[in-house]
Fold these 2 entries.
Entry 1:
Amino acid sequence: MKVKSAYIHIPFCVKICTYCDFNKYFIQNQPVDHYLDCLIKEMEMSETRELQTMFVGGGTPTALDVHQLEKLLIAINNLFTITGEYSFEANPDELTIEKLQLLKRYGVNRLSMGVQTFNPKLLEVLGRSHKTEDIYSAVENARTVGFESISLDLMYQLPQQSLEDFKESLDLALALDIDHISSYGLILEPQTQFYNMYRKGKLSMPNEDVGEAMYEYLITRMHSSEMHQYELSNFGKVGHESEHNKVYWKNEGYYGFGAGASGYVDGERYTNVNPVNHYIKKIENNERPILHATQPTRTEQMEEEMFLGLRMNQGVSISRFHEKFDISINEIFGQTLSDLLERGLIKQSDDYFSLTERGKVIGNEVFEAFLLSV
Ligand code: SF4
């Protein structure tokens, strides 16, 4: 199937957050210009020139200075025709008018801002580089420059965070009348500052019940606003769902460009080499910068179809499954589906199986059932 989407990874940040286990490096003393040259070379190697969606993420792409940013934007424009969503991830304190104008000039039509919380104390605990007031000025600047599609990332289940605190952040985000919100619970990942603090008893996390209550509140609050839930952690106004992210959940192909980026092309899932210097070396040697690549088996593809598709409110299409795998969904997953239906964790309507409200809260348990069943 023709690949219609691409992800570009900019693995640099101006400050390293205490909870972060993403693939990123403190930008100071990194070979940023050299990295961009190699990234552009990697993009030149790809066959596709027409894309429906593009997502530039990181790290933080807006950590680049204006010259670096323009170099990247020009290269993307020269190499690809992007017919649909063109998103840039951004930190609020880095969204200056100058950078926003550049993004706009080169066709970026959606901003995804890493806000995480409006609580100034929690922003500090998270080690974020921005302050609460930066969120307001970034949204205002983006609107002044003419961005119509703005998404905010909000986290919940943060250290010492109460349900009330999360409610307040959510209300403040909604009061900004933006178009899209992604909200994820914090997971303590090994090799982060948070994880070490937690092990030493220096970090107090809300218990699981509070985390569940926050997620349930999130769904209810969004339901009563204009934002409809279309994926477990994603909410948008009509016409503002992330088309790029839907490519992942629909288990479709995409390129991944940059150090540590992942892609899915012609039935092959691959991950690029990391760290930055290893990536640069591969590209300089005119090699594909692949660390590992696998071809998911048919069974794995069917499992992925289920647990990725069930993340979306719409769910998994019974007819699409049949079309894709030439076998009925019931023949493969019949027992699991009837168990989950009986337990009230999934429901069936017309052509779709989807999660119930309870199923959404314990989604991982549902997904695991499909891993075990084949
Ligand atoms: S800005 Fe994002 S990628 Fe960078 S350290 Fe913070 S959470 Fe990680």
Entry 2:
Amino acid sequence: MGDPNIEDVSCVGVGKPVYVWHRRYEGIPTNIVFRDVRVLNEFILKLAHRAGKHISLAYPTLDTMLPEKHRLAATFGSEVSTTGPTFTIRKFRAKPFSPIELIADGVISEDLAAYIWFMLDHLKTLMISGGTGAGKTTLLNALSLFIRPGLKIVTVEDTPELNLPHENWVQLTVRPVYAVGVTLTEVKLFDLVKLALRYRPDYLIVGEIRGEEAFVLFQAMATGHGGLSTIHAESLDYAIKRIISPPMNIAPTYVKLMNIFLHIDRVAMEGVGRTVRRVRIVQEIEDYEKYRVISTWNPETDEHIVTLNNSWLLRDVSAKTGKSIGELVEEIYRRSMILRWLRMKGVYDFMEVSRYIFRYHYNPTELYNEALSELKGLK
Ligand SMILES: Nc1ncnc2c1ncn2[C@@H]1O[C@H](COP(=O)(O)OP(=O)(O)O)[C@@H](O)[C@H]1O
Ligand SMILES: [Mg+2]
């Protein structure tokens, strides 16, 4: 559990090795094998008790959080699982990934990150779609670092996964962990999102939308709040189909309130011999069924191709600020250069990265000049 490269630990039953998922080596068996059902059941009971929960033949499944914030899913006895008791621990990463780490990893590019940074400064909204474990929450957390310092952020989640450097941040979760002085067990996501609006957030971040809480989120965006979220979907089309169908029921004319969609996937890279995560496509929603492609990923060259010319939002920002498109594009490239500088300097730590982002907000020229002169030395 101490190795940060290990993402999860799982046991599918007695007589089989406990597996770990390693960032580089993927699924690998360990030399730990539970041979006795009673011992495994007892171990699962112990885990459940550490989480302050109950598991038994009468209540044989559990999905909860351990005190260290690791996510625990388990089955007891052989009531629901044919191979007997099982468990999976998805490890909580105490330090979230920073945008610089995701750039260095190739998940996003500098230009793409700079575009998002710029758009979040102009209070644009975005949604990340992808399959389970694609890295949606991780990407959402990393991109949230670009939200201007001082803005009020309220996050709403089922389990507390998000971790932001902003001081003006309230974290609401369905499970009672940080929940601002009150116990919020058995409160639904829907109620929490409604509650979050009472805080008048500049940005409302919903960890993942699944049901009727989506309606509240879109309502919030319709009244001028910024919104960020993730959705489980295999493509943009599926994501939008889910949004406009029950139980979310968003009116098609409302879909464009979500300005930007990013789709993230796990892809097998033959060259690297392992699966990697990549933002495959980024689209702006000009209107329902009217999408503009901002970035695509080329699997052959492993490059992100960003086409700011297609941007509809840049035109919108230009109209609102009186600045020309050219000036705005230049601003995005300046930010892209700052990100390249941080990557080349090896500034990866999320707190450190956010300090630079905050500094850029307060004095862009100073930081840009510092980057420019240092980059000359680094080349
Ligand atoms: N770019 C990445 N590099 C390495 N590990 C990652 C990356 N993105 C996500 N992970 C890890 O993969 C697991 C699933 O990621 P998560 O963001 O929770 O996925 P999702 O929200 O799509 O289900 C987590 O353990 C996370 O730390
Ligand atoms: Mg998630």
